[in-house]
């Protein structure tokens, strides 16, 4: 199994990305189209926010179809809280894409990201879709990955290549996300493509499982979006024996998909608005998996923990405190806490009590751009990982003027 830190084109899929005029800056792409040359099996997960954008509502119905053949995505406008007009606009995006590609509208999924509560500039989007369809190609994925971005500092892509039944399988993913990021999905969009042959039931099962341990374990600012979704399409062009049971091939596929979703999730967490460092919580020794997840997510969500990491302050008390209100069951008198980075590993807490530690070494670790918080509850066999970032002055600057 080989991982690539780029989007490896998947046989049978094409894409395009372009500037259609939603964003004021003409150098920034704001519309993307992903197209499967043959009907593809589809699966998805959607935001848990009660306020759901129009594209989410449409996709929750269209994903019930066995097949999907195209996805149209815009950035710069969320098409959320826009009433019936917003719903009609999202539907028109699917209808236009379907017409241009000679598909049924229910074979098209739609995604939007950007400012909430603003009507879609359909006079720009509809011609943009027509132009985008004319541009789709096997080499269009880098442009498509650009077209889905908002405040992201860079594109987020990853691929895994492996074999099933002697057939070469590729799973490639792209994502966007930088702010309004919180467990149970975030202001993020994820699009994953594969040439594997797999049933819809097994594809949904694998995706749902992978999302729980990846996108649902990241936090930037504690806000859960109205628009987030992860969509996977499998076009079955690899011609492996169809995966329709939880057998060894399913396990292999799920492992590869897990690599893709975790890597994309880490990229989103590390690219948090104003972030200067990626923080990973590696928690073990929990009585249950749920307790482990609750404690790990609470640490990564704490604004006090995030602020301390921005300042390079080894304030371990905030970590223990955040676990205490997480709802996870653990004994504080058993807990060990470590920090780890390229400069080494240091223990700060043993059996729930602070240790005398090398402040200079702790500072060196905390000033790195990828830091691990290692927590051992010493009370069971379950573990969990979560990812987030520090909270900087720039986060407030970005979000203080996001709309204007």
Automatic annotation (TrEMBL):
<feature type="site" description="Involved in the stabilization of negative charge on the oxyanion by the formation of the oxyanion hole">
    <location>
        <position position="114"/>
    </location>
</feature>
<comment type="pathway">
    <text>Amino-acid biosynthesis; L-arginine biosynthesis; N(2)-acetyl-L-ornithine from L-glutamate: step 1/4.</text>
</comment>
<dbReference type="GO" id="GO:0006526">
    <property type="term" value="P:L-arginine biosynthetic process"/>
</dbReference>
<comment type="similarity">
    <text>Belongs to the ArgJ family.</text>
</comment>
<keyword id="KW-0068">Autocatalytic cleavage</keyword>
<keyword id="KW-0511">Multifunctional enzyme</keyword>
<comment type="pathway">
    <text>Amino-acid biosynthesis; L-arginine biosynthesis; L-ornithine and N-acetyl-L-glutamate from L-glutamate and N(2)-acetyl-L-ornithine (cyclic): step 1/1.</text>
</comment>
<keyword id="KW-0028">Amino-acid biosynthesis</keyword>
<keyword id="KW-0963">Cytoplasm</keyword>
<dbReference type="InterPro" id="IPR042195">
    <property type="entry name" value="ArgJ_beta_C"/>
</dbReference>
<feature type="site" description="Involved in the stabilization of negative charge on the oxyanion by the formation of the oxyanion hole">
    <location>
        <position position="113"/>
    </location>
</feature>
<feature type="binding site">
    <location>
        <position position="404"/>
    </location>
    <ligand>
        <name>substrate</name>
    </ligand>
</feature>
<protein>
    <recommendedName>
        <fullName>Arginine biosynthesis bifunctional protein ArgJ</fullName>
        <ecNumber>2.3.1.35</ecNumber>
        <ecNumber>2.3.1.1</ecNumber>
    </recommendedName>
</protein>
<dbReference type="GO" id="GO:0004042">
    <property type="term" value="F:L-glutamate N-acetyltransferase activity"/>
</dbReference>
<keyword id="KW-0055">Arginine biosynthesis</keyword>
<feature type="binding site">
    <location>
        <position position="187"/>
    </location>
    <ligand>
        <name>substrate</name>
    </ligand>
</feature>
<keyword id="KW-0808">Transferase</keyword>
<feature type="active site" description="Nucleophile">
    <location>
        <position position="187"/>
    </location>
</feature>
<comment type="function">
    <text>Catalyzes two activities which are involved in the cyclic version of arginine biosynthesis: the synthesis of N-acetylglutamate from glutamate and acetyl-CoA as the acetyl donor, and of ornithine by transacetylation between N(2)-acetylornithine and glutamate.</text>
</comment>
<keyword id="KW-0012">Acyltransferase</keyword>
<comment type="subunit">
    <text>Heterotetramer of two alpha and two beta chains.</text>
</comment>
<dbReference type="GO" id="GO:0005737">
    <property type="term" value="C:cytoplasm"/>
</dbReference>
<feature type="binding site">
    <location>
        <position position="273"/>
    </location>
    <ligand>
        <name>substrate</name>
    </ligand>
</feature>
<dbReference type="GO" id="GO:0006592">
    <property type="term" value="P:ornithine biosynthetic process"/>
</dbReference>
<feature type="site" description="Cleavage; by autolysis">
    <location>
        <begin position="186"/>
        <end position="187"/>
    </location>
</feature>
<feature type="binding site">
    <location>
        <position position="150"/>
    </location>
    <ligand>
        <name>substrate</name>
    </ligand>
</feature>
<feature type="binding site">
    <location>
        <position position="399"/>
    </location>
    <ligand>
        <name>substrate</name>
    </ligand>
</feature>
<dbReference type="GO" id="GO:0004358">
    <property type="term" value="F:L-glutamate N-acetyltransferase activity, acting on acetyl-L-ornithine as donor"/>
</dbReference>
<dbReference type="InterPro" id="IPR002813">
    <property type="entry name" value="Arg_biosynth_ArgJ"/>
</dbReference>
<dbReference type="Pfam" id="PF01960">
    <property type="entry name" value="ArgJ"/>
</dbReference>
<feature type="binding site">
    <location>
        <position position="176"/>
    </location>
    <ligand>
        <name>substrate</name>
    </ligand>
</feature>
<dbReference type="InterPro" id="IPR016117">
    <property type="entry name" value="ArgJ-like_dom_sf"/>
</dbReference>
